[in-house]
Amino acid sequence: MLPGAEPIRELAHAGPDALSDDLLRSAEPVVLRGLVAHWPMARAGGESAEAAVAYLQRFARPGAAPVVATVGPPTIDGRFGYNTDLSAFNFRQEKVPLPVALKTLLKYLDEAAPPAIYVGSTTIDTWLPGFRGENDLDLGGRDPLASIWIGNRTRISAHQDVPDNLACVVAGRRRVTLFPPDQLANLYVGPLDFTPAGQPISLVDFAAPDLERFPRFAEAMRHARTAELGPGDAVLIPSMWWHHMEALAGFNVLVNYWWRQAPAWMDTPMNALMLAIMSVRDLPPEQRATWQEVFRHYVFEPGEAMADHIPGPARRALATPMDETRARELRARLLQRLNR
Prior knowledge:
Strand content: 15-25%
Mean pLDDT: 95
Largest sheet: 9 strands, mixed
Structural class: alpha+beta
CATH superfamily of the largest domain: Cupin
CATH topology of the largest domain: Jelly Rolls
Order of helices and strands: EEHEHHEEEHEHHEEEEHEEEEHHH
Number of helices: 10
CATH architecture of the largest domain: Sandwich
Radius of gyration: 22 Å
């Protein structure tokens, strides 16, 4: 356990019936011990790396499209991120058949300083058809994206995801460290538009935090929560909670489910943030304050009286709640403006 981090709340012996609607909508993280211990994949993962690979090989289609493997030299100590001046990344990506990636991971299983190898966010139904027929969860009518993550001793820097996330360890061991969304300023986040895997990441090395360079990280750690997970264990990570994932074994597999508590047609708020940075952030202070009030009125505190003075059919974008048709119209208008 990292110094200063509190344990994540746990539910012991949590079978699939623990996945109530209230739990899946929770804004607080929770560890679910043994949630997927009944999966054949988790049983194979608990036996050995070789057994886990043999099980996965059953579902790898001959001639399937290659997966993307992220590979870094032993000198990065498993921590994927940037070079020293953030001008490039400290890893490369290769397209390889999944069986080759699995064989390579076994090859380096017992090496003290292997290259860092990570097959991340690989859609299960595409690359391992039939796997979910034997290893799956009922999330109460949700239509999640199910992905698999395979690698050796790797460290994924703290980052946020917009969807809710149910992460299930099925081979190896992982340490997960979480921070509430309000710790943004204390995590020293890197570039928004040049990221290792699509999401901005904390620049702090959790294994050796430089508190001279990142002094507020000490405050972040006072809000941290952590847990170690083994085969069969899972953790629910609510939307926008910062999470640092560290694989602790020579071979590790995680299956996760992502879903949003919003209609599929809603755009990601990250696009709105980027547009606001481009068009609002650098205005003169008085104008920026004006737009802060505009956003409060229309977005963050849209009271019932916001559009009462406009006849219902004429409210258009101000009608609440937003629906798919109006969202499509707004998106088309926005694209026209951005492409002018």
